[in-house]
Amino acid sequence: MTTTEAIDPVFMFILGSCLVLLIGITVAMVVFVVRYHRSRAPEPTSQVDGSLWLEVIWTAFPTLLVLAMFYYGWASYLTLRNVPPGALQVTAVGRMWSWNFLYQNGKNSPKLYVPVGKPVQVALESKDVLHGFYVPAFRVKRDVVPGMKNHVWFVASKPGSYDIFCSQYCGTSHAAMIATIEAVPPEQFEAWLKETKSTGAQHPALALLEKHGCLGCHSLDGSQKVGPTFQGIWGRKTEVKTAGKEHEIIADEAYLKRSIVEPNADVVEKYPPVMPAFAGVLTEEEIRLIIDYFKTGGQAGAAKLDGAKLAKDKGCLACHSLDGSKGVGPSFRAIFGTKVKVVRNGKPEMVTIDEPYLKESILKPAAAVVDGYQPIMPVEDDLSPDEVSALVQFIKELK
Ligand code: HEC
Ligand code: HEC
Ligand SMILES: [Cu+2]
Questions:
Q1: Ligand 1, from 259, 261, 278, 281: best to mutate by most atoms within 8 Å of Cβ?
Q2: Residue 247 parent element (H or E)
Q3: Torsion sign across C-alpha atoms 191, 194, 195, 197
Q4: Which ligand has the minimum distance to the alpha carbon of residue 94?
Q5: Each residue of 172-215: pLDDT tens digit?
Q6: Is 318 near ligand 2, meaning CB less than 6 Å away?
């Protein structure tokens, strides 16, 4: 049984009983008013002292009716709470003022994709305040309380798009807290779930780095692995040993190329000479792509990620406008290069909006709070470094 099939009959039963009573009582009232009007019956026609069977009926009938409403209501409530076995597990995260959906394979999406005909259990989580997960089409509505475990389930029996609303007033843009359930055929859902990147295309060099196992030994985010990190590699000063002699180099095109093709020519100090040579494995063209990628510090890849789409999908636009108007947060329009007053460590200071500042504002919103605004911007902990760069780039270029 689906949640819709559980709820609708109860609703119709209660609505129907109420309608019958409303019409019955109103008709009886009108008939009595006319029939026993003083002009028709100037003298009282009868005096009834009491009627046992009448009393029994009008006590027993409403009692049974109300008990029946309770019984059907309770039974269908149990259907809402008991999730059928084998349901797809998704977590809905509510925050001011957007929804995000996390799947078990780590994928996340601003839209709730579900396979048609399969029950879906949605675990409800809030990052900040009280929200409500409300899907009228499937008759489910449940509060999303910070720190409390809660869930709903539903089945989309037909393909299509269904609205999700927030049903608890949660601040200024509460009304904008709308998301969509996309019910698609199961094969299409499986294919969608397998696509690894939810936003935009990958830089082709990244695919190469993954394919040739470079990322097993080199990180992109500055963390330590077997080899030096690729973060900030372009133009970096490095101590290397060339033919047994130590000297300092600056990572330029020629050095990087040699490091890939012939890693043992210059061995970075304090690292073991374990990198395999990629001469003959990577083509000239591929090496150029990789070096370009290093040059731009991943920016070229980030540019491929659509910053505008990200800003929308990640809920930034619920608080930040693109047209210069003041929202819950400052507008993104033409702020790059301007000066802004922020409060850092409790002290006011003027800062110029540059890339590091934007990055910090996104990753650590509470570090420098823009004067005149509340420190309510959420920490978006599932942004990848590329996504942060794409957002910075997007804000930077917004005229
Ligand atoms: C088995 C681990 C391993 C793999 C796989 C590997 N590397 Fe390395 N790489 C290292 C180590 C260790 C160093 C540092 C020692 C050296 O210079 O040889 C290094 C150094 C480098 C350097 C110079 C770094 C600097 O800071 O100057 C570059 C550039 C580089 N690797 C690129 C690549 C690329 C591109 C790939 C994939 C095509 C790759 N590496 C695959 C282990 C690896
Ligand atoms: C719940 C509302 C909210 C959401 C969602 C939100 N922000 Fe903010 N943001 C704010 C507020 C309020 C401020 C100003 C106070 C502060 O600096 O913390 C701010 C400040 C900023 C600033 C500094 C702006 C300036 O003029 O100095 C940047 C950049 C920023 N946010 C980017 C983002 C990005 C990117 C996202 C999406 C990943 C996002 N914000 C999501 C509320 C929000
Ligand atoms: Cu809400």
A1: 259
A2: strand 245-250
A3: positive
A4: 3
A5: 778 878 899 999 999 999 988 887 654 444 577 887 887 677 77
A6: yes
